[in-house]
Amino acid sequence: MNRDAAADPADQAHVDPLPDLPETLLAGYLDAALATLRAADPGDLPGALRQYRTWTPRRLRHPRVLGLVRRTLDLDQSFRKAVDKRVLDEEQTLARLLRSGRHAEALASGEAPEMVARVGLALGADGAAAVGAAVEAAATSQAQAEAAAVRSALAGAESELDAARARADAEAADARAAREELRAAREELRRAERERRALVDRASGLERELARSEASLRVARSEAAAEQRRLGGRVAELQARLAEVQRKYRALRRSTGQVDPVVAEAVGALERDLGALRRAAGLAGEGEPAAAPSTRRPERREPLPVPGGRGADDAETLAAWMAADGVLVLVDGYNVTKHPLGFPERDLEDQRTLLLDLCRRLARRFGAEVTVVFDGGTVEPIPTRLPLGPVEVVFTDAGRTADDEIVARANATPPERPVVVVTSDNELRERVSALGASVTRSPALLGLAGAR
Question: What is the pTM of this model?
Answer without folding.
Answer: 0.37
